[in-house]
Design goal:
196 residues, 13 strands, 0% helix
């Protein structure tokens, strides 16, 4: 049996006995099937992290896609971006295509170009999606991820449009994001008004 590193389906060989010499008689079964199962695994493909952050003025976000639990044979996966709170053409440039992993490769990247503007928009998001794995690979748990574009203009806003907490929890965690501020900007005061 020749061992290789390509992911393949099980292969079969038909074995048969024939033309014995001397006084040997062939008995039943005179044929048999040998099945060679593949021990090579193409692995799972998923995003390297659930969230990627990029500064609005950084140029391009580099997104990492990881291949785990097997790297035999080549494998492919499609990727695409879609609007979250950011808008393609205004905040970023749409990116989509196919990543191709070679034998033994565990990581690939793709770029999402970021469009810098002069608007104070706060943190904006781009949805990232993986689909259609090929070469025997399967998708892992992280088939979606979030790209967060951190505004370089001074902006203050909530991290989400709504929050939910059980009344018995005692406290609620509400995240406020401040962007476009450097350590040279001096002290900032944040006033929170609680309404019941």
């Amino acid at each position: 049996i020749h061992n290789h590193t390509r992911v393949t389906a099980a292969r079969t060989v038909i074995l048969s006995l024939g033309n014995p010499t001397g006084s040997i008689t062939i008995v039943t079964p005179s044929t048999a099937t040998l099945t060679i199962t593949d021990d090579d695994v193409a692995g799972i493909i998923e995003f390297g992290a659930p969230v990627f952050d990029i500064a609005e003025n950084a140029g391009s976000a580099i997104i990492t896609v990881a291949r785990r639990n097997g790297t035999a044979g080549g494998a492919t996966v499609n990727f695409t971006t879609s609007d979250g709170t950011a808008t393609a053409g205004s905040d970023y440039t749409f990116s989509g295509g196919t990543l191709t992993f070679g034998v033994g490769e565990t990581s690939k990247t793709f770029a999402v170009p970021i469009l810098n503007d002069s608007l104070a928009e706060g943190v904006e998001t781009v949805n990232l999606t993986l689909s259609t794995p090929g070469g025997g690979a399967t998708l892992g748990a992280r088939t979606t991820a979030l790209l967060r574009i951190i505004d370089d203009e001074k902006a203050l806003g909530f991290s989400a449009q709504s929050y939910t907490v059980n009344e018995g929890a005692g406290t609620a965690t509400i995240t406020v994001e401040l962007s476009g501020v450097s350590t040279t900007d001096g002290a900032m005061v944040l006033t929170v008004i609680w309404c019941r």
